[in-house]
Amino acid sequence: MSLPPGPGRVHDDGVSASRTVTVVVFDGLQLLDLAGPVEVFDTANQVAGEALYDVSVASVSGQPVRSSSQIEVGADRDLAAVARATEALDTLLVVGGSGTRALMQDDVFLADLRAMAGRARRVTSVCTGALVIGSAGLLDGYRATTHWAWCDLLAERVGVEVLPDQIYVHDRDRWTSAGVTAGIDLALALVDADHGPELAHQVAGWLVVFARRPGGQAQFSAALRAQAARSPAVAEVQRWLTDHLDHDLTVERLAERAAMSPRSFARSFRAETGTTPAAHVEELRVEAARRLLETTDLTVGAIARHVGLRHPETLHRAFLRQAGTTPARYRQHFAHRSA
Known about the structure:
alpha/beta; Rossmann fold; two-stranded antiparallel sheet; 16 helices
């Protein structure tokens, strides 16, 4: 689909702004880790009406690679040749996928990656690509994230502070993102940083995605973080909760719904989900409040009532426990604003 041309964007000195993006691929890559960011950069070029981004794909020996879904991907650069070259790189992007396991032990590959990173303005990764750049020592002293299932493995690297709930993490010249589709969020954030929020919102609109996804500060929802209950009665209550946050959700009321005694319900809920009913309800309510703070102009008091916390002071205390900040400060940083 062709997009209508937008205004060209130039540096202050009048020279056209074109940033190189070198994407590192390998056998076993996750295809969406590559396709998502590349489509963001290509759409930015089309919307702007000029080549803001010059994307190239580098692999070992410049050979085609095969994704984990068995789709062959061509490459136009030899990874070792890029590592030996002297030209400056703007953005180095390492994708993820099942093939990262082997790369984490490949000393030659990691050395080439370090050489490229030394000439790059910023080093970025999608999904388990963070494990690769972490194995190369490129995340030492940085905060980072990766797919939620591999955060513990990344945290084993000395000197890396892992933020497991983040969609992406920007720490100085390092940008890392969570699993798979989070690469789109990361690439949109890079466009925003390079060319401003208006272009990022236009690109997101053409791709029919959120410029900053609602609830986008968490990799996965509270409903998914809790283990699924095994018993039908507790599982039904667990499913029912997310759509009834404004109800009376005391243990006594939830136990009535499950046709159990409060003591038996509380014991079963914790054993089956890994958390207490009260803690789970509070997490669900704060998550719902986050979405409303991001996407509406409702007052904090109105949001507190909407999610069943009744009073703004109660929401304030719950927010501090769950998010480490206040509702007002959260809205200031994460509210969606029109382009």
